[in-house]
């Protein structure tokens, strides 16, 4: 596959750049949404609230931190420790899923998207620039 961008932008390169930028944005959005959902689900299912903690603190670590500000010091520390532990569990799982997805994507790319030599028609359309010795 030859790139004509060495001599300046062409229609294919400009279109490719826009497609790449759009796909990158959509991928980022999907990744944040999916990983955020996983983190939240793990947090809400693994937090062990102290008996004195308000039930709303199970929704997010921010709610737990806000509620801890209104509790006595000992209860606040217990609540914050439980929230931090649940958040760490969710974050660790989200990072593990990200690592697996990146490894799978790398393996797929290596296996199926290898660079192909230019066909004679492509070589004629986009000849190599002359090499200058020096």
Describe the structure.
The protein has 4 helices and no strands. With 134 residues, the protein is an all-alpha fold. It has one domain. Helix 1 runs antiparallel to helix 3 and helix 2 runs antiparallel to helix 3. The longest helix is centred in the C-terminal third of the chain and has 40 residues. The chain is elongated, with a radius of gyration of 26 Å. The mean pLDDT is 83.
Sum up the overall morphology in one term: elongated
Radius of gyration: 26 Å
| Structural class based on helices, strands and sheet pairing | mainly alpha
- Unreliable stretches (pLDDT < 50, length at least 5) are none
Largest sheet geometry: none
Q: Report the mean per-residue pLDDT as an integer.
A: 83
Distance between the termini: 28 Å
As a percent range, the share of strand residues is under 5%
What's the helix count? 4
Tally of separate domains:
1
Element order, helices and strands? HHHH
Helix content: 55-70%
């Amino acid at each position: 596959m030859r790139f004509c961008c060495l001599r300046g932008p062409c229609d294919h390169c400009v279109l490719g750049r826009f497609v790449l930028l759009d796909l990158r944005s959509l991928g980022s959005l999907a990744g944040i949404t999916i990983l955020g959902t996983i983190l939240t689900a793990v947090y809400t299912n693994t937090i062990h609230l102290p008996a004195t903690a308000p039930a709303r603190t199970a929704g997010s670590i921010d709610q737990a931190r806000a509620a801890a500000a209104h509790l006595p010091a000992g209860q606040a520390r217990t609540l914050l420790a439980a929230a931090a532990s649940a958040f760490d569990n969710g974050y660790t799982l989200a990072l593990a899923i990200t690592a697996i997805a990146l490894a799978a994507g790398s393996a797929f790319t290596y296996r199926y998207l290898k660079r192909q030599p230019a066909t004679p028609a492509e070589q004629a359309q986009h000849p190599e620039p002359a090499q200058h010795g020096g």
